[in-house]
Amino acid sequence: MGHLHFLLHFLLSLSCFSCTVLSWNSQQLYRSNNYEGSSDLVNLVYHMGPVLASPINLYTIWYGNWNPAHQAIIRDFLISLSSSPSSSSFPSVADWWRTVRLYTDQTGSNITGNVILSGEHYDTSYSHGRYLTRLAIQSIIKTAAVAYPRPLPLNSYNGVYLVLTSSDVMVAEFCRAVCGFHYFTFPAIVGATVPYAWVGYSGTQCPGMCAYPFALPKYENGAVWTRSGNRRKVMGAPNGDVGADGMVSVIAHELAEMASNPLINAWYAGDDPMSPTEIADLCVGVYGSGGGGGYAGMVYKDRQGRVYNVHGVKGRRFLLQWVWSPVRKRCFGPNALD
């Protein structure tokens, strides 16, 4: 869930995140202890609700004044979720989604592997202002659904909605308690019950909190300490923009949880459905093998110093946090060494 996502980011940053970066060309990998959040004590429970087993029609709402280059980074990530093996090198974004697909509903149906970017709406007029409450996010979806002359379909069968706010939009608790969140809409506001998520652009508002590991809190002075005690600079964003690349990992986090817990009654740990610990919350800050306990894990680094762990369409590279695997009982991603 969004608030836990932010708090874990903050607490782990206090304990000095570190990350081993690996050259994709040299592939000089080394073994380390298998942390990755592994534990038999994690009580992730299925609460009998639905998962997103039908092909997902994803509708994106760009709220505010967006840089087209930033939109292209995010759009290419979304397209990469269902890309064919021929369009992306291994490990790919689609390979990362395969861990999410391991979750099933009460009929035994797995989460779908078919995520289609089915529509986009551009709310450049700030229809609900530049200061938004959480509930206002639902009103933005409603506005998009009745927009003239090109309304966004209100798809209550297999529609999922992603509201992305630009750098000049303030959302309640953004940068203080959340980097993003997901929930479901209320029919009284939107006209139907559909899963949705919101993520804000943090590149100018709070990159050190919501765009880790491409930025660090100001008190870290642009560097972290590795396990060996060496001083290391922040890592390079794989597509050249701290805010957009940071958003991609938060979007991945929220989409994974929305697919496995769309109505907040499916897969989560904890006793409070209003504050669940979901499959991505369990792995915040883990991006590669050996990750955990304030160590991000082994990832790749290109010749320009940009860090990533998966490939996408059009030659894109992304750094996505891992999610909890119900089979391995630990955090896992396709760049894992085992």
UniProtKB/TrEMBL annotation:
It is found in: Secreted, Extracellular space, Apoplast. The keyword GTP-binding does not apply. Keywords: Apoplast, Secreted, Signal. GO terms for cellular component: apoplast. It comes from the Eukaryota. The keyword tRNA processing does not apply. Residues 1-23 form the signal peptide. Belongs to the EXORDIUM family. PANTHER family: PROTEIN EXORDIUM-LIKE 5 (PTHR31279), PROTEIN EXORDIUM-LIKE 7 (PTHR31279:SF18). This is Protein EXORDIUM-like protein 7. It comes from Cinnamomum micranthum f. kanehirae.
